[in-house]
Write a structure and sequence with these properties.
Number of domains: 2
Order of helices and strands: HHEHEHEHEHEEEEEHEEHEEEHHHEH
Helix content: 25-40%
CATH superfamily of the largest domain: Type I PLP-dependent aspartate aminotransferase-like (Major domain)
Structural class: alpha/beta
CATH class of the largest domain: Alpha Beta
Length: about 375
């Protein structure tokens, strides 16, 4: 089965991990600090805090933003469930706003309409690696007195009007799952350009521990002393995985260049296929193209999905609208809430997209798809 996404691991990554395993620090050591510094460069100077997954990054970002019961988070349903569930787990109410019909990205006008006096965060998703409309969304968030969050699980290395993803929103979250644009096996990060938020994120991912003497509330203790002022979790990404990330980050530009080549080939090879919509690219952005999401028209998506997988082509669907999940329907969310997103979901099919995908493999994907839609 040809997968829809796959990691690319070289001998350099293996050697870097082995070096850490032979050293003194398996976690909380120098590889963590180096990876965070390298990430900060990629994110345009934003302060970066590594965590154990993209989901942990979202949970940590919302905690750093201080959201809780009574607060609202406005976001898109066209995303992995963690964008919403981590906010809900902190007690916030998730308010879903519809998406743009062509890109599947959060619609700024819908987000504006969804905001209330209780909105604390507007959370956009760089769906498929294409940056959202951050100029418009910044206006929406600022007007609501809310923080702007970028769920950039798909878009590390992308740019928006020349600015690196990570340097635009108040909080940005990355995912380093194996199918993403780079990997640490499991892992993620929170980036922030807003003073104090990265510090809060770092404390939350480290169980809430306070170790700076000038912050202590209990005085006259020994050098071993540490305190917890706010609850946190152990979301620390260990050195052994950060070592993998350091090398992957060096290869990121090459990964993204190959993804752009694959996108260009898909566009050329599929441009004349009836019943198929290809994903757009907005002016002023350089997407990271984690996914290549095509739209199968005429109610044929399920049939095409089944027949392509039967042919050994590992296509995927991204994503089930978040509020369709029973955990949200049990909270009272109804189908029909975001009709544009629901139509997008009914048509969407992600074609194989990863740096080691060969031209021959891509040609096979195209041939099978053309035969089914011809």
């Amino acid at each position: 089965m040809l997968p829809y996404g796959r990691q690319s691991i070289s001998d350099d990554e293996i050697a870097a991990v082995a070096e850490v395993l032979r050293g003194d620090w398996l976690t909380t050591g120098p590889a963590v600090r180096q990876f965070e510094a390298d990430l900060a460069t990629t994110a345009g100077g934003a302060e970066c805090v590594t965590v154990t997954s993209g989901t942990a990054a979202l949970h940590t970002a919302y905690a750093a933003a201080g959201i809780g019961p009574g607060d609202e988070v406005v976001t898109s349903p066209m995303t992995f469930v963690a964008t919403a569930s981590t906010a809900a787990m902190l007690g916030a109410t998730v308010v879903f706003a519809d998406v743009e019909a062509d890109t599947g990205l959060l619609d700024p006008q819908a987000a504006k309409a969804a905001c209330t006096e209780r909105t604390r965060v507007v959370a956009a998703i760089d769906y498929a690696g294409h940056p959202a409309d951050y100029d418009a969304l910044r206006t929406v968030a600022d007007s609501a007195g809310a923080l702007l969050l970028d769920d950039a699980a798909h878009s590390i290395g992308a740019t928006y009007h020349g600015k690196p993803i990570g340097s635009i929103a108040d909080l940005t979250t990355f995912s380093f799952f194996p199918t993403k644009n780079m990997t640490t096996a499991e892992g993620g990060a929170v980036a922030s350009v807003r003073p104090g938020l990265a510090e809060r994120a770092a404390r939350f991912r480290n169980i809430g521990l306070v170790r700076e003497p000038h912050r202590f509330r209990i005085a006259d203790q020994g050098r071993w002393h540490q305190e917890v002022h706010e609850f946190g979790l152990n979301y620390r990404l260990p050195d052994v995985l950060c070592a993998l990330g350091i090398v992957q980050l060096r290869r990121l530009a090459g990964f993204l260049a190959r993804r752009r080549e694959l996108v260009a080939r898909y566009r050329t090879l599929l441009s004349d296929v009836d019943g198929l919509l290809l994903p757009p690219q907005r002016p002023g952005v350089e997407p990271a193209w984690h996914l290549f999401p095509v739209r199968i028209l005429g109610g044929r998506r399920r049939d095409v999905y089944e027949r392509m997988r039967a042919a050994g082509i590992g296509v995927q669907v991204n994503y089930v609208p978040v509020y369709w999940h029973p955990v949200f329907t049990d909270l009272g969310y109804k189908r029909g809430l975001c009709p544009v997103a629901e139509e997008y979901y009914e048509q969407e099919l992600s074609l194989p997209m990863f740096p080691d995908l060969t031209d021959d493999d891509q040609d096979r994907v195209v041939d099978v798809l053309r035969s089914l839609l011809g």
